[in-house]
Amino acid sequence: MSSLAPEPGGKLPTWDELPPGGVSEDAGATGRRMMDFWRGGGHRPLLDLNLCVQCLHCWISCPDNCFVLENGRVAAINYDHCKGCGICAKECPPMVNAIVLIEERQFT
């Protein structure tokens, strides 16, 4: 991950050199550890790519960077880091409903 701070005597990046606003490139501890155990008793988001309109609301709003992008498109959910908070399902446009929450106990 590159820093946005300039080198001493350097210049700041231009607007088109910046990463997308509001998106963390590093999920911190969540990105380095398996966090799926937090979903115990909770919910698991299921993504239907046939319904997805690629608005990227899920990717932008996910606090744990669980959404996998390929060529700028949502391709999958990385469940190793998903805590099942449900923010992605809430942010998916209501007329689309490409993400639904399923009780985690159905997968154990």
How far apart the termini lie comes to 35 Å
Helices and strands: which structural class? alpha+beta
User: From the coordinates shown, what is the CATH architecture of the domain at 36-107?
Assistant: 2-Layer Sandwich
Q: Which residues form runs of ≥5 with pLDDT under 50?
A: none
Oligomerization state: single chain
CATH domain fold name of the domain at 36-107? Alpha-Beta Plaits
Largest sheet, if any? 2 strands, antiparallel
* CATH domain class of the domain at 36-107: Alpha Beta
Q: What does the radius of gyration come to?
A: 16 Å
How confident overall, as mean pLDDT?
Answer: 80
Structure annotation, total helices? 3
Helical content class: 10-25%
Q: What's the SSE pattern? A: HEHEEHE
